[in-house]
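Standup, Tuesday
Yesterday: got the pipeline producing structure tokens again.
Today: sanity-check two examples.
Blockers: none.

Example 1:
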Amino acid sequence: MASLLPAVILLLTFAAVSAVDDKCAACNAVAAELEIGLSNVRILLNCVCETVTNVFTECPIVSELRVVELLDGLCDKMQGYTLEKIDSGRREWIKVNDWDTLTTNKQEARAYSKQMSSYCGRLLEQTEDELTELIKKGSVTAGGVSKVLCQELSKHCQSSGSHQADVDGHDENEEL
């Protein structure tokens, strides 16, 4: 049994690596989680603006500290996601509310969640500076995080659904 353990771990590692084959779907999951955090920051800012001015106005400026705090915890939150089999050939990233009630292979699900967290780290490493500036300026609107992060900054999703390649024909995101 002990001799099978390395083979099982290796198999789960390869399965997890393939989990992020669909970078667009993974990016959209990260964007959805970021959207939740950003909406919470906007609610807080709106309350502060209303309290200070006695008039409800949206505060378009988000401090760099708030953005850094928002992005710092994002990839840890992505460990709460895993791939769920939708039908014979499709899988979808889902947020797991209770790991104990998960009906799929829990080890495999945990491997996917770690892969998603790792993917998130690489994605933010690539896009964090530009994303931070856009959020601070108020350029990332409610419901628009996925478009900014996944289409404009990382280019993991294209509006036409085609795969992004640079002028030389090389995948510009192949290290992710």
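Example 2:
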Amino acid sequence: MEDLWPDNFNLKDNIRTPSKILEEQGDILEKKTSGKIQGLLHQTKSAAMANDIMEYHFGIYSKTLNYFYSFMSIRHKIELYPVEITTDYEISKQLQWRSEKIEATNQSEFILLLSEIFKTDKVTQVIAAMFAQS
């Protein structure tokens, strides 16, 4: 039987998906807060998936308070990038974005935007309040 596939699929082991990056950041947050606050990622099962769109919501969770604060979502096609980031209004205002949505065209841009989001007053204040009550 003849092999009709290309010799090289350009497969790379070092690519981290947007969802993997968020999962890693959730783990880091849990360690930084001695397990009191977790970063949680939930995949949305919606009509978007029928259109080749992957969608996730990310937020922080306190088991003690049984409280979840969802402050961002991401959407991308199976090819991973570009990835659309949607934050809540207060965060986008603090970052001086024109809207709650912004697009990262590659992994480096995505990581930079996450760093900016995580360091906003809104996110740090919510984490501090959840930590104090946990």
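Quick observation on example 2: The chain has one domain: 18-133. The longest strand covers residues 67-77.
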